[in-house]
Design a protein that fits this description.
Layout lengths: L5 E5 L4 H12 L3 E6 L2 H14 L5 E5 L7 H11 L4 E6 L14 H29 L2 E6 L12 H20 L5 E6 L8 H4 L17 H14 L3 E2 L3 H12 L2 H15 L8
Parallel strand pairs: 1-2, 1-4, 2-3, 4-5, 5-6, 6-7
Helix pairs in contact: 1-7, 3-4, 4-5
Length: 271
């Protein structure tokens, strides 16, 4: 059955975003995929339309790490009179290295994307959902949101913001018919490791610590549709977080730093 609803998915050209888009399409929802990778966007559009021929997939090539990107997306959507009932803020990337030596320009773009763009898109689309009496927002954070992360300090902090912001708004939305879900995956077999600029990672797709994007997307999608406020995919991730809460923060950060050094063995710090 074709839905009257449309889902907007950022970072929808690949990885978790693409897998989420496929799930929306399978349930009969039309799609708007936003990504900065135009070739990948076209590939995603054709793949989903071939799998679900009755679904309309619109693509919007946009760098969401730029100032006013959220307003650009919102204006495009409203101009074309799309009815957005599902918003997925999935786009993101990481920067690895000691904070004193990492490139500020790249970190500033990351903060723009993770903090300002996510907040602005939520701000812009939320009132319409409340007026309609129905809507679902999925903000993709990370297990990194639950503690400080040496060698990826700004990334961890930005994901903490997404978690705190989303859970607070979720509380405000009780009785409105609208919900916000925060998805906190662990290491996932996507292009993220390449995005931190460190070459090969020691965590392989077959590692017990590494999840498949389709599995992560399914966990997030199910939680979103049930209106849950938080989902942490994978028993390993939930167990590691539970253990993390039991140890002193100083020890936790030491463990995280050693883990980062193993995950990114070939990283080059700074510019």
């Amino acid at each position: 059955m074709i839905s009257r609803y449309t889902a907007l998915v950022t970072g929808g050209a690949s990885g978790i975003g693409f897998e989420l888009a496929r799930l929306f399409a399978r349930d009969g929802h039309h799609l708007i995929l936003v990504d900065m990778n135009q070739p990948k966007l076209c590939e995603a559009k054709h793949a989903i339309e071939n799998e679900c021929p009755e679904i309309k997939v619109y693509i919007l090539n946009c760098n969401l790490a730029r100032e006013n990107a959220a307003e650009f997306v919102y204006n495009h959507v409203t101009t074309h009179r799309f009815n957005i009932s599902f918003l997925v803020n999935n786009a993101g990337f990481g920067v690895y290295g000691c904070f004193a030596e990492t490139p500020w320009q790249k970190e500033m773009c990351m903060l723009q994307l993770h903090v300002l763009t996510v907040t602005a898109l939520t701000k812009l689309f939320l009132p319409g959902m409340i007026t309609a009496g129905y809507g679902r927002i999925l903000n993709v954070a990370s297990v990194a949101a639950f503690q400080p992360g040496p060698l990826m300090a700004v990334y961890y902090a930005s994901k903490s913001y997404i978690l705190s912001f989303s859970q607070a708004i979720a509380n405000e939305l009780h009785t409105t018919g609208v919900s916000i879900t925060t998805l906190c995956p662990g290491i996932t077999a996507t292009g993220f490791q390449k995005s931190v600029g460190n070459g090969e990672s020691k965590v392989t797709p077959n590692s017990v610590l590494c999840s498949h994007p389709a599995d992560v997307a399914l966990s997030g999608y199910k939680a979103l549709m049930k209106g849950k406020s938080l989902v942490i995919p994978g028993m390993v991730n939930r167990t590691l977080l539970f253990v993390n809460w039991l140890v002193p923060r100083s020890l936790s950060m030491s463990i995280i730093r050693k883990a980062q050094e193993k995950i990114h063995p070939n990283a080059v710090l700074g510019n």
